[in-house]
From TrEMBL:
CDD domains referenced in this protein's UniProt entry, alphabetically: TPP_E1_EcPDC_like (cd02017)
Catalytic activities: N(6)-[(R)-lipoyl]-L-lysyl-[protein] + pyruvate + H(+) = N(6)-[(R)-S(8)-acetyldihydrolipoyl]-L-lysyl-[protein] + CO2
Composition skew (Basic and acidic residues), residue ranges: 1-17
Record-listed Mg(2+) binding positions: 239, 269, 271
Function, as annotated: Component of the pyruvate dehydrogenase (PDH) complex, that catalyzes the overall conversion of pyruvate to acetyl-CoA and CO(2).
Cofactor(s) the protein requires to work: Mg(2+); thiamine diphosphate
Residue ranges of domain Transketolase N-terminal in the record: 149-301
Domain of life: Bacteria
Protein name in UniProt: Pyruvate dehydrogenase E1 component
GO terms of molecular function: magnesium ion binding; pyruvate dehydrogenase (acetyl-transferring) activity
InterPro entries: PDC_E1_N, PDH/Transketolase, PDH_E1, PDH_E1_M, THDP-binding, Transketo_C/PFOR_II, Transketolase-like_C_2, Transketolase_N
The organism of origin for this protein: Streptomyces pini
Entry's EC annotation: 1.2.4.1
Source species taxonomy: Bacteria, Bacillati, Actinomycetota, Actinomycetes, Kitasatosporales
Length: 893
């Protein structure tokens, strides 16, 4: 090939000090390829690259390795346990997991069998030798954090049954929780808080959260809150789950920050819910390339010991080449076909392989292709786990190949439909019993429900299990449910600044909230426990003043001189920084929040996270994570800033939030407030600190919406605390111009209070109508209270909803207005005795000035005034012509 024909290379721009030497290397490689074949040449090149890496030359790594185990058999560490004993324990767990789901199928509640069947040894090896419990001396009070694959939950329940933490009655209530005492379908801390720590079955959230949990562990250590260096995060995932964008969204972060306290274990059974994960490709190779490119250490555990003989026969490399070219769907087919088929279609593809097959028995071929996988052998799994923990400087992913439905029989193994198969027949149970070698008589496998199996509480198996868990620090998974001590209450002076108002100065409620938190972070009792979280918009929310004082967390500190170092509020990163500034990733920021919000249980260290974001990009963008937060019993403050549909001028449709309060109202753990004034924020935050971190320690979180519209903040009136917290109080009573003046009640939340106050003035000055203005701090809390009262009424209790009591006897109709769609205030309409109507910002947002946007949606002061006159006209309290006149005067007609 001439120089003109050669593809240009980036190396062409670098000076070649010795072109003759370069040519000799190329000629040597050509000679090897010519004499020994291209595969030998490739092998030598890879060996050279491997050697270069070991000697520190720093060459880029190849994205893929051969389709073989990373840890060679000869390099496997000695297995430290009693393998026969562990096989018996695993057999009981396999049986009881299948029995539990099959027994539950009588009631139509479903369940998954095949996932745990494939992954059993991935869990058993960890439980017996690796996973630290909460009482571990290496990770006291924390242990390891285990993100269990959701569909594998029956196997975890089966193990908890074997170690005495669950009873047969509880197993029989799998997926039957309504009567109490049942077991949730998947890992759900809210439903089974003594066992599960992390909800994982909403696929993709487990791996994302595991990364940020590992990072938060480092954050706690860096900040001096708690030494968590002994904790390790294990995330068990499915190969199909890795298609979720959240699964791989933070891989670079984990590598960038060197999170070697994190291991992903991907169960590569090559099947997702309906068929092959990569029918025409190889998912293991794809994942390896993806993780290696992101900077992760990759350990592949693909083949069981039966393959050792085959690989030893592969003197030409033909077997390894064939393994790399066979697509997953075809390999799945090999796992179900006879030896003749495999001889023809696998070995027959290459003369060297055909020659190899002649010395292999049919039994050997069946063993290799049907069941011998790295993920099914405890020695292989142990070697992979040891390699993961030994690696330093980067997280590790273990790609463990298994057979989905392993040990469940030919009706299950490698079948496309096995994810939907919910029970075994009596004959299948007999086959499974024989395969596992369990002492269950045929008489127990008759017409009735298949029995659970247990070797006895004093059996060698149970004693061994208990001894292994005791050595590792107690049961796992396990969640600490005892309450941690209440945090000291912050001093009143931190809240007083907001309660006294801003005088003549205009201040947005966003700024008021940030100022409050900044003051609370200075409190010597609890200040260090605040965790400010923001997705790269700190300056938008006025948080840059926290940069130099609190610092932005970075495990490397600040290795550069910031461009604004000479400014008062310069960009400061520190290894003990308090702020988590996540870049442009709301999902990452939310994962941070979840880790911090549940630190009281995970580590016994209560933290007070507040996560501030564009309100449009909270519940809408990461709503699934808000449910994860609730399920994980998280506590803290989430703050939707630049809230409402009309306050963020010029940003347009994608930034205009008129519905987050409606979405938030669906989450039972979220206490949602739309405060109008700074003093309301002070009262709400103080209440939140009391409820979440005081003696009560409720498993709730607070959602506050704040606005970027500067307004004069009034001082707090007397006696309004109850109304603020319950959701409604009268802020300003109208002064009637005459005893028979028409009257209306204006209910407003957030920034809409100012439109209502202006409308109150217009109605009084221009039309002689008296309006009372109410601050509706929480539409959803009013509704929840009312629903609770309705339920109490059905039980014979005489309870009146707070909203009905607050508005009882208030003259005239009620008109509600907010910067949200009408469905938000309409939540309380059934419990309002007066005529009800509402105004809101239904429809898509748009770019314009605040005034123009509010006029467009019909929620500005003039629109409110006209709407109020219309409601009164319908009641005959003002003339219909007055409505038309007002519309004309205000330019609405």
């Amino acid at each position: 090939m001439t120089d003109a024909e050669r593809t240009p290379s980036e190396l062409d721009q670098l000076v070649d000090r010795d072109p003759e030497e370069t040519a000799e290397w190329a000629a040597s490689l050509d000679a090897v390829a010519r004499e020994a074949g291209p595969h030998r040449a490739a092998y030598l090149m890879r060996r050279t690259l491997e050697h270069a890496g070991r000697t520190g030359l720093g060459l880029p790594a190849l994205p893929e390795t051969d389709y073989v185990n990373t840890v060679p058999t000869a390099a496997e560490p000695a297995f430290p346990g009693d393998e026969d004993m562990e096989r018996r324990i695993a057999a009981w767990n396999r049986w009881n997991a299948a029995a539990m789901v099959t027994r539950g199928s009588r009631f139509g509640v479903g369940g998954h069998i095949a996932t745990f069947a494939s992954a059993a040894w991935l869990y058993e090896t960890g439980f017996n030798h690796f996973f630290r419990g909460k009482s571990s001396s290496e990770a006291p009070g924390s242990g390891d954090q285990l993100y269990i694959q959701g569909h594998a939950s029956p196997g975890i329940y089966a193990r908890a049954f074997l170690d005495g933490r669950l009873t047969e009655a509880q197993l029989d209530n799998f997926r039957r929780e309504a009567g109490g005492g049942g077991l949730p379908s998947y890992p759900h801390p809210r439903r089974l808080p003594w066992l599960w720590e992390f909800p994982t079955v909403s696929m993709g959230l487990g791996p994302l959260s595991a990364i940020y949990q590992a990072r938060f562990n480092r954050y706690l250590t860096g900040r001096g809150i708690k030494d968590t260096s002994g904790s390790h995060v294990w995330a068990f995932l499915g190969d199909g789950e890795m298609d979720e964008p959240e699964s791989t969204a933070a891989l670079a972060l984990a590598a960038r920050e060197g999170l070697d306290n994190l291991t992903f274990v991907v169960n590569c059974n090559l099947q997702r819910l309906d068929g092959p994960v990569r029918a025409n490709f190889r998912v293991v190779q794809e994942l390896e390339a993806q993780f290696r490119a992101a900077g992760w250490h990759v350990v592949k555990s693909l083949w069981g010991s039966a393959w050792d003989d085959l690989l030893a026969l592969d003197t030409t490399g033909a077997l390894v080449r064939r393994l790399r070219e066979v697509p997953d769907a075809q390999f799945q087919t090999y796992a179900t076909r006879d030896a003749a088929y495999i001889r023809e279609h696998f070995f027959g593809a290459d003369p060297a392989l055909a020659e190899m097959a002649r010395v292999l028995t049919d039994a050997k071929i069946i063993e290799c292709f049907h069941t011998s996988r790295g993920g099914h052998e405890p020695r292989k799994v142990y070697a992979a786990y040891r390699a993961a923990l030994a690696h330093r400087g980067a997280p590790t992913v273990i790609l463990a190949q298994t057979v989905k439905g392993h040990t469940l029989g030919r009706g299950f193994e490698s079948k496309n439909a096995n994810h939907q198969m919910k029970k075994l027949t009596a004959d299948e149970f007999r086959d499974m019993r024989d395969l596992l070698g369990l002492p269950i008589p045929d008489s127990a496998l008759g017409e009735g429900p298949v029995p659970y199996g247990h070797p006895g509480p004093d059996s060698p198996e149970v004693r061994y299990l208990a001894e292994r868990r005791a050595a590792l620090g107690g049961p796992a998974p396990a969640r600490r449910t005892h309450p941690v001590p209440a945090l000291p209450e912050p001093p009143e002076r931190a809240f007083q600044a907001l309660k006294k108002g801003s005088g003549k100065q205009e201040t947005a409620t966003t700024m008021a909230f940030v100022r409050l938190v900044k003051d609370l972070m200075r409190d010597p009792g609890t200040g260090r426990r605040w965790v400010p979280i923001v997705p790269d918009e700190a300056r938008t929310f006025g948080m840059e003043s926290l940069f130099p004082s609190a610092g932005i967390y970075s495990p490397r500190g600040q290795t550069y001189e910031p461009v604004d170092r000479d400014q008062l509020m310069y960009y400061k990163e520190a290894a003990d920084g308090q702020i988590l500034n996540e870049g442009i990733t709301e999902a990452g920021a939310m994962a941070d929040f979840i880790a911090a919000a549940t630190s009281y249980a995970t580590h016994g260290e209560p933290m007070i996270p507040f996560y501030i974001f564009y309100s449009m990009f909270g519940w809408q963008r990461t709503g699934d994570q808000f449910w994860q937060l609730a399920d994980q019993l998280g506590r803290g403050f989430v703050v939707g800033a630049t809230a409402g549909r009309t306050t963020l001028t010029g940003e347009g449709l994608q930034h205009a939030d008129g519905h987050s309060h409606l979405i938030a109202a669906t989450n039972p753990a979220s206490l949602n407030y739309d405060p109008a004034f700074a003093y309301e924020i002070a009262v709400i935050v103080r209440d939140g600190l009391r409820r979440m971190y005081g003696p009560e320690q409720e498993n709730v979180f607070y959602y506050l919406t704040v606005y970027n519209e500067p307004k004069v903040q009034p001082p707090m009136p007397e006696g309004v605390e109850e109304g603020i917290l319950k959701g409604l109080y009268r802020f300003r009573e109208g002064t009637p111009s005459s005893p028979d003046a028409p009257r209306i009640q204006l209910l407003a939340s957030g920034t809409a209070i100012h439109w209502a106050l202006d409308a109150q003035r217009l109605l009084a000055d221009d039309w002689g109508v008296t309006a009372d203005v109410w601050s509706a701090t929480s539409w959803s809390e009013l509704r929840r209270d009312a629903l609770s009262c309705d339920a109490a009424q059905l039980n014979g209790e005489d309870r009146v909803p707070y909203v009905a009591r607050a508005l009882c006897g208030a003259p005239g109709p009620v008109l509600a207005v907010s910067d949200w769609m009408r469905a938000v205030p309409d939540q309380i309409a059934p419990w309002v005795e007066q005529d009800w109507s509402s105004l809101g910002t239904d429809g898509f947002g748009l770019s314009d000035t605040r005034e123009a946007a509010r006029r467009h949606f019909g929620v500005d002061a003039e629109s409110v005034a006209v709407a109020a006159l219309d409601r009164l006209a319908r009641r005959g309290e003002v003339k219909r012509e007055t409505v038309r006149e007002a519309a004309g005067r205000y330019g609405l007609a």
